[in-house]
Fold this protein.
Amino acid sequence: MEINISTPALLFSAISLLMLAYTNRFLALAQLIRQYATMYREHPEDRVLKQIQNFDARLNIIKITQIFGVTSFLFCVLSMFLIFIKWITPAEILFAISLVALFASLLLSLKELFMSIGALNIELGEIVSEYRKQNTSKKLF
């Protein structure tokens, strides 16, 4: 494969959009953590504590996801610089590392997505449980 300066440049927009998405996930999660921490202080419940534990694990995954995303971006930039100064073989190696870091970032993002679904299932489970207690003859789902 022949690599030129536009090859790693193709990843710039993709990585930038991913970093924006990761930041938005982080900010949304930070807001939820603040809400649930207040909720737990006022009324300590198992459901709320389970959510907070889920949020803690997701926060760590988002942090690692962002680290891999930034690493991918940095190696992409270094790869472009090395192409610019005509060091093609090291540039190809750094570009490959950039792709691996991006792949890891995407896999972690997928894991966090499934954990997010788990948090929603905790909430839905509580609602379904309450509904069944009140309406023993009706089926919700």
